[in-house]
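Deliverable D2.4 — example input (structure tokens):
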């Protein structure tokens, strides 16, 4: 399978758009990948075998290499008129943001109209509307700024002592997500990254 090179957006760039916003709504697509049909000539590439028989996906399944990039591309094209103005899209997560309540009503109406026209369906139980503060992509967002989501901080603080290089990689993956707000993150993480190298014996110590 040829890897789709469509880039996922940087979280920093997305959040830069939120300056001055004070009203938020969050919309989650219902099984977003499954709302995209696989091209007929590509269906056979999704084939898999079980003891019950041979199956093929006619909609885009979870887990394939290109699914995030394909859905991201689709959502960017669908929401293009609203991007950088009132909507942030990250794969199947949509955030509507506005400076005033009146604007927010207009922005919501516009987005919901687009989703309806394109036959893209949201999971209502996971949607939140008319918020003054919202959790989005691991951050807490309100009119005063952007904070790290408290449960994410707790996850870092109470992470179990690593017992292997793979444990350290998992921890660095979580903590590194917030490197933009941790001064000298790379320097601080040097003792940990050193232990992930193949030529280095894994010995956990105070360093």
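Example output (designed residues):
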């Amino acid at each position: 399978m040829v890897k789709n090179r469509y880039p996922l957006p940087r979280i920093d760039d997305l959040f830069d758009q939120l300056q001055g916003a004070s009203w938020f709504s969050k919309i989650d697509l219902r099984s977003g990948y499954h709302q995209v049909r696989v091209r007929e000539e590509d269906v056979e590439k999704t084939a898999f075998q079980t003891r019950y028989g041979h199956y093929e996906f006619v909609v885009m399944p979870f887990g394939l290499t290109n699914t995030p990039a394909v859905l991201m591309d689709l959502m960017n094209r669908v929401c293009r008129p609203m991007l950088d103005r009132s909507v942030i899209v990250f794969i199947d997560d949509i955030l509507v943001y506005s400076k005033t309540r009146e604007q927010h009503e207009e922005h919501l109406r516009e987005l919901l109209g687009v989703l309806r026209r394109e036959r893209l369906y949201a999971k209502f139980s996971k949607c939140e509307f008319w918020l003054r503060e919202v959790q989005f992509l691991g951050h807490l967002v309100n009119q005063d700024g952007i904070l790290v989501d408290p449960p994410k901080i707790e996850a870092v603080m109470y992470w179990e002592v690593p017992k292997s290089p793979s444990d350290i990689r998992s921890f660095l993956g979580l903590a590194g997500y917030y490197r933009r707000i941790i001064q000298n993150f790379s320097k601080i993480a040097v003792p940990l990254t050193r232990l992930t190298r193949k030529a280095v014996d894994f010995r956990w110590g105070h360093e």
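The two ends are 43 Å apart (CA to CA).
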